[in-house]
Design a protein that fits this description.
The protein has 434 residues and is of the alpha+beta class. The chain contains 14 helices and 20 strands. Helix 12 links the parallel strand 18 and strand 19. The chain is elongated, with a radius of gyration of 26 Å. The structure holds guanosine-5'-diphosphate and manganese (II) ion.
């Protein structure tokens, strides 16, 4: 919820930034296993975290034509490049020796694709599968759609590598089918979708079955996204899910223990993982004002007002109703771990969490950490007077306000001063205490 709201605020602010979604993505080999459990045909294969393991899988498959696929939580692997120089995260191979050789060049290396950004993602496993001989490659997805507030099936005959390109150049080649959540996918709807995939008539019945099964996975596993690209028709007119990207709703994690047990933390932002351990929501943006807030609504308002006064948030930490001294310290640690941060803005509305407790937490934290960037605090709500007294008596250089406009102006101004000083390599001291 917090992340979705902030993402909307970011969108409104009119600047594209990569804000992570708070939902779970699984590796392809895990996703493929789920599909298989539901009777959907996937290529035979297995995953390994070692080169020897990959060699053994290839040996056991005993085939002449296989594919080795780097497992990272991002699409576009086929056209990706490794930091080792190797081109392509999906390679055709014809021997166990080759499986080992490519696994060595993939494992522990970063794969950079269209979706990973320049930093890339580290490959912790490879998936070795039988190679399929395909007639057609289609695209099929089941998604939760904001506009219709329900599931939607997206299908295209132009599947394969680059669905974003298809959407841009030939949007007519992409068909959407709204699913009535009460009715589910009827035979009629399944057939309509199957007919839009561009498969031969022989493959249509199996494609329709696949559509129904995918919707079953979507519903029963609390998925928010199932994307099969490509869904292929083989030369024998079989329908195969040759790649799978499944995403799951974090609000349902409590009833999907098995799926959440497959979470791969190595693919997530380490700071965000760290924050979630302390029950903090953390999202990173590309400005330089670190923000500590409570609640998504306040985060949005904070975003807007910072922008209004010409500032740019570096990140948002939401401590919700649990702004204990310990949580505040953790939050400050995370906020200041980003060297680009030039000022901290604390905007908290004391309701369940009282202002004086926040003030105590802030004082303890600033005393413990040797911060040399300015802190601007705007508190409102329960026990405000006590909080103000504590801050002013602490002798710490915390800029305290009750008015949001004044506080936002101050933090934007101070952050600019610090940035300018950094640019010309001058040390402006905001060391605490005074
Ligand atoms: P992505 O680039 O991350 O989407 O990775 P994919 O798993 O979709 O693989 C990229 C592309 O490789 C696919 O779109 C296929 O065109 C091709 N590919 C992968 N496995 C096979 C296979 O077994 N047979 C054939 N013919 N093509 C394959
Ligand atoms: Mn794909």
């Amino acid at each position: 919820m917090f992340n979705a709201t902030v993402r909307r605020a970011v969108a409104r602010a009119g600047r594209p930034v990569a804000v992570p979604k708070r939902n779970l993505s699984l590796h392809e080999y895990r996703s493929a296993q789920i599909l298989k459990d539901y009777g959907i045909a996937v290529p035979r294969g297995a995953a390994s975290t070692t080169a020897e393991g990959a060699e053994k899988i290839a040996k056991d498959l005993g085939l002449e034509d296989m594919v080795i696929k780097a497992q990272v939580l991002a699409g576009g692997r086929g056209k990706g490049t490794f930091d080792s120089g190797l081109k392509g995260g999906v390679k055709l191979i014809s021997s166990p020796y080759e499986a080992k050789m490519y696994a060595e060049q993939m494992l522990g290396h970063k794969l950079i694709t269209k979706q990973t950004g320049a930093a890339g993602k580290e490959v912790t496993a490879v998936y070795v599968v039988e190679r399929e001989f395909v007639r057609r490659e289609a695209y099929l997805a089941v998604l939760m759609d904001r506009a219709t507030q329900g599931p939607v099936i997206v299908a295209s005959s132009q599947g394969g590598m680059d669905i974003e390109g298809v959407a841009k150049e030939t949007p007519d080649a992409i068909h959407s089918f709204k699913v009535d959540i009460h009715e589910g996918v009827t035979d009629e709807l399944a057939l309509k979708v199957a007919n839009s995939l561009g498969f031969s008539a022989k493959a249509v019945p199996e494609a329709a079955e696949t559509v129904k099964k995918l919707y079953k996975v979507f519903k029963e596993k609390d998925a928010t996204q199932i994307e099969i690209n490509p869904l292929s028709e083989t030369v024998e007119n079989k329908v195969l899910a040759m790649d799978a990207k499944l995403g799951f709703d974090d609000n349902a994690s409590f009833r999907q223990e098995e799926v959440w047990g497959w979470r791969d933390f190595t693919q997530e932002d380490p700071d965000e993982v760290e924050a979630s351990k302390s029950n903090l929501n953390f999202i990173k943006l590309d400005g330089n004002i670190g923000c500590l807030v409570n609640g998504a609504g306040l985060a949005m308002a904070t975003m807007d007002i910072i922008k209004l006064y010409g500032g740019d948030p570096a990140n948002f930490l939401d401590c919700g109703g649990g702004a204990t001294a310990k949580a505040i310290e953790k939050a400050f640690e995370l906020i200041t771990s980003e060297s680009k941060v030039t000022a901290i803005f604390v905007n908290i509305f004391g309701g369940i969490v009282r202002c004086d407790n926040i003030a105590k937490g802030l004082i303890a934290t600033t005393q413990n950490m040797s911060l040399n960037i300015p802190i601007v605090v705007r508190l409102q709500g329960t026990n405000l007077e006590e909080a103000q007294r504590l801050i002013s008596e602490s002798g710490l250089k915390i800029f305290s306000f009750t008015d949001l406009d004044e506080a936002a102006q101050k933090v934007c101004q101070l952050s600019k001063v610090v940035q300018m000083a950094r640019d010309i390599d001058v040390n402006v001291s905001f060391e605490l205490p005074l």
